[in-house]
Structures are given as structure tokens and as C-alpha cells.
Design a protein that fits this description.
The structure is a single chain. The protein has one domain. Helix content is 59%, strand content 4%. It is built from six helices and two strands, in the order H-H-H-H-H-H-E-E. The protein starts with a helix and ends with a strand. Bound molecules: zinc ion (2 copies). The site of one zinc ion (ZN) has 7 residues, from helix 1 and helix 2.
Length: 184
């Protein structure tokens, strides 16, 4: 039972770290330069760029070591390992979900909402909607904004947004997104 509670705490701890890393390491000028910001600026600038997979594997291994050691020392082997495994697993889940937002339109109202939440951050105002997996911490820190209609520069558009026939936003996304045409 304590193992399950420790795992739940690990998931919560990662989701908090996800917000903190993205908001402050990624977007606060006072924290630069740092390796996360370098990759994150490129992610914003190129639209659908992701850091190479080995950097994520390295981050997961480092996270497991850095979190696992102190957690086992503080809470014992079972609870400490549960916490660290859930923390690292949630980190990898975040990476997967973030990548999927960029390459797949998602399913249902929730899939649609989480994408609009994230692409508001990309294209409307990067000072808001820092939570990639959840909007929860944006609510806590008062950085939550309703997505409205998101204007996406054509050269940065997610592949799923564009209808190859017309070159414009697909009909099913036309209420949520507009394309800013490339110049020239
Ligand atoms: Zn993104
Ligand atoms: Zn960002």
C-alpha cells in the first residue's frame, strides 16, 4: 500500500517538475544559458523539432539516479524505488505525449483540448500554459489561459493540422486554428 502511495507521489512530483523545468529553465531569461533552454528554444523556433532520443534516455537515467538514491535513503527500498520508478516513468510518458501532440491530432474533446493548451503556449503566448501533460499546475500558478483561436505560422505548422489538398487548416480544426501564410 505504501508502495502505491509512493508511486502516486512520484507521478505528482514529476508533473510539478515538468511545470518548473519548462517555465523557469525553458522560459525565464534569468536561468539562461542552460542545456534544457538550448533545446527548448530550438523546439519553439523550428516548431516540431525534438532533441535526440539519447538525450531523453540520459535524462531518464540521471533522474532515476538523482531521485532514487535520496528516496530510498529517506523512505526505504520499496517506497523509494516505487517513487523513483513512477517519477522517471512519468517523465518518459511526458516526452511521449508531448511528441504525440506534435505529430497526431489526438482523440476526442480531451485530446483536442490538451493540444490547444500546448499550441497556445507555442504560438499565442509562451508566458502561459506551461504544463504540457496537464493544465493543473497552470491553474495553481495562475498561468492558465483559454486557448481561443490559435494562429500558427505556416512553416511551423504541425503536420496533422494541414489538409494536403488545400494547403490550409483541415476543416475539423478550422474553429480552433488559423494559418499565418509564409511570406513571398
Ligand atoms: Zn511543443
Ligand atoms: Zn515552451
Amino acid at each position: 500500500m505504501a508502495g502505491i502511495a509512493a508511486a502516486a507521489l512520484g507521478v505528482l512530483a514529476w508533473s510539478f517538475m515538468e511545470y518548473v523545468i519548462h517555465r523557469w529553465l525553458g522560459h525565464d531569461a534569468r536561468m539562461r544559458p542552460n542545456p534544457f533552454a538550448a533545446e527548448h528554444v530550438r523546439h519553439h523556433g523550428e516548431g516540431n523539432y525534438f532533441a535526440p532520443i539519447w538525450t531523453k534516455a540520459l535524462a531518464a537515467a540521471a533522474g532515476l539516479g538523482l531521485v532514487g538514491g535520496p528516496a530510498i535513503w529517506l523512505a526505504g527500498t520499496t517506497e523509494g524505488l516505487s517513487f523513483a520508478a513512477a517519477f522517471t516513468g512519468s517523465y518518459l510518458g511526458y516526452e511521449l505525449l508531448h511528441w504525440r501532440k506534435h505529430i497526431h491530432p489526438g482523440y476526442g474533446a480531451f485530446g483536442r483540448f490538451t493540444r490547444r493548451h500546448h499550441f497556445y503556449h507555442h504560438y499565442t503566448d509562451p508566458k502561459f500554459n506551461h504544463g504540457v501533460t496537464l493544465a493543473f499546475w497552470d491553474r495553481v500558478f495562475r498561468t492558465l489561459r483559454p486557448p481561443g483561436v490559435i494562429r500558427v505560422p505556416e512553416r511551423l505548422a504541425m503536420p496533422w493540422l494541414i489538409d494536403p489538398e488545400t494547403g490550409d487548416v483541415r476543416a475539423e480544426h478550422a474553429e480552433d486554428y488559423e494559418l499565418i501564410p509564409a511570406e513571398g
